[in-house]
Specification:
Order of helices and strands: HHHHHHHHHHH
Helix content: 55-70%
Radius of gyration: 18 Å
């Protein structure tokens, strides 16, 4: 049988179709079932639940893309993201906005389903406050204390661990420090300082709010610069697996 091939280029029908299919699976399919299982297992640590949520979300995207001929791995996801970015750059503002809002809504649904956040608990964050907050987050991510914490946790991973498991453990260490030290650590924490409450629930609500601004160039610049230093401290390449979203 001939090897499947992905579309040669992205267009609106394909891009919107991928978004709608992903949303359908996360609302009604196996993706939704997995998110429900994560919620039910309340004994699971928050970071583990977050990682499993991301695995379910990314796994659903890979499944949808495979149906279009993309390889079911990081290479397929990378090609899709490249084609999508190229197409969006040349699209009209209305199309860009439709794609942005659909992506925002899907991400919020994933978060709210996994952690059972009620719609009335969600908060709005304007772009000025979002940029101010992510600048603070970026500063704290690049702080020596943060980088040393990550390096120490990653160095503690058993050296003879399987490479794939070691990479996953390092991503877990990064996520642990980002959540518990950068976002909800300190007094006041960034989460509480910007009015999202306290602790892990506040972190989830903050991420729902930031979904509105995830495509803002300045926010992306702050997060991207900081993540490069974070990944370097962890001994990871930026391409090794899924980095935490900031969606971060």
């Amino acid at each position: 049988m001939k090897e499947p091939t992905p579309p040669a280029a992205m267009d609106e029908e394909i891009a919107m179709g991928i978004q709608r299919a992903t949303q359908m699976y996360m609302r009604h399919g196996i993706g939704k079932q997995r998110l429900d299982e994560i919620y039910v297992d309340s004994s699971m640590p928050f970071i583990s639940r977050w990682q499993k949520m991301m695995e379910s979300f990314l796994g659903t995207q890979v499944h949808v893309l495979a149906g279009l001929g993309y390889s079911p791995d990081e290479n397929g996801m990378g090609l899709y993201n490249h084609q999508l970015g190229t197409w969006l750059q040349n699209s009209d503002p209305d199309t860009q906005e439709r794609m942005r809002t659909m992506g925002r809504d899907i991400w919020r649904e994933v978060l709210c389903t996994t952690f059972r956040v009620k719609e009335e608990d969600l908060k709005d964050l304007d772009i000025v406050e979002a940029r101010k907050m992510m600048y603070r987050v970026s500063e704290k991510m690049q702080d020596d204390t943060t980088l040393q914490l990550i390096a120490k946790k990653c160095e503690a991973i058993e050296p003879d661990t399987d490479e794939q498991l070691k990479t996953a453990a390092k991503h877990g260490a990064v996520q642990d420090v980002l959540v518990n030290h950068v976002y909800i650590g300190g007094e006041p924490s960034i989460v509480s300082e910007f009015g999202f409450g306290e602790g892990e629930e506040g972190y989830v609500i903050l991420q729902c709010a930031m979904a509105e601004h995830q495509s803002d160039p300045l926010v992306a610049q702050y997060v991207g610069t900081a993540m490069m230093k974070i990944m370097n401290a962890a001994g990871l390449d930026m391409g090794q697996g899924a980095a935490p979203p900031a969606k971060s």
